[in-house]
Design brief:
The chain is α/β, with parallel strands linked by helices and about 200 residues long. It contains six helices and eight strands; from the N terminus they run αβαββαβαβββαβα.
Length: about 200
Amino acid sequence: MGRYLPSILVAAQLLMSSQVCGQKTALLLIDIQEFYFPGGRQQLEEAEKAGMNAGLLLDQFRKSGLPVYHVRHNFEPGGDIHPYVKPAADEKVISKEQVNPFLDTDLLETLQADSVVRIVICGMQTHMCVEAAVRAAHDFGFECMLVRDACATRALQFEEHIIPASQVQMSTVQTLQESYSGVTTTAEFLRDFNEMIDR
């Protein structure tokens, strides 16, 4: 718990200032699509847990009236966004062809037009599209917060080496935490969020 304290404090600071001078904190849900879940073409480890946690974040942002953006990769079969985070009619869905959701889409222009300066990010796969989103958002000047247990990934193979999904997840999160983003958990984030909105 102690080693995540700086990230938790960052999360609280992001939320406490989310409406200052019209600047907003937004939720960005990356590729939480059916093909990553059990029975899908590219099942990830702990996809159900990550999807449910993302749903909890989504519910909180909706209740608080903060902006939500969904990203989906153009891939079939199973390309629909999972019911855990089904977009509402007024929530923007951005379809992409690239790993980086800012590349060849209007995501950057949309965030800027909506006065978003801070982004809470979660989704699938941690080591691919989620990592690309965090790095790109940081480089565009956004403050980022990654909710690590609302993300999921899979085992990888490099030559004869099999890298377990848990190690892929931890190494990716650690890299992002060092230079690109705050990192927290769903429970910690929601706790801090509720403290903020009760003030």
